[in-house]
Amino acid sequence: MQMKSIRRATPADQIVAGRIYRDVVSSAHWLPAASRSQTDFAAASVGEEVFVCCDAENVSQGFVAVWRPDAFSHHLYVDSRFRNQGVGTLLLDSLEGWLPRPWTLKCANANRAAIAFYLARGWRWIDTGENEHGQYSVLESVAPRSA
């Protein structure tokens, strides 16, 4: 597998993250149609810390956006060209060491692939809710995943 690194997003990375966000959200069949049109990453991540996963050529493959005060992972998206290559796992693992646990996130229940991704990495269900995007689960990670 090609070497990948995680780093804080630069202004140029924010543009790429915006494209990834727009592409994923606009094609998210599990979201209501009105939600699929809300593709402004800058507006959706105000005040969040954004980190990108890059390959050896510095190509951004995905990102995680975190609301640090609540240790809340608000966004984790991977460019469709780089899915199933460990990018999402690397982004989650990068939180270790700088973001105190427990970490939490919300995930649309209809996004079964994402729910399975988090559960396979040791996250656990702690609550449910519903908002304008539909029903969601609140997941929590309290300990590093075992290798």
Describe the structure.
The protein is α+β, with helices and mostly antiparallel strands. It has one domain (4-141): 3-Layer(aba) Sandwich (Aminopeptidase). Helix content is 27%, strand content 33%. The chain is built from five helices and seven strands. It has helices at 11-26, 33-36, 41-44, 87-93, 112-120, and strands at residues 4-8, 49-55, 60-67, 72-78, 103-108, 124-131, 134-141. It has a four-stranded antiparallel sheet with strand order 1-2-3-4, with helices on both faces. Strands 5-7-6 form a three-stranded antiparallel sheet, with helices on one face. A hairpin with a 4-residue loop joins strand 2 (49-55) and strand 3. The radius of gyration is 14 Å and the shape is globular. The model has no long low-confidence stretch (mean pLDDT 94).
The count of DSSP E runs of length 2 or more, i.e. the number of strands, is 7
The name CATH uses for the topology is Aminopeptidase
Q: Per CATH, which architecture?
A: 3-Layer(aba) Sandwich
The residue fraction in helices comes out at: 25-40%
CATH superfamily: Gcn5-related N-acetyltransferase (GNAT)
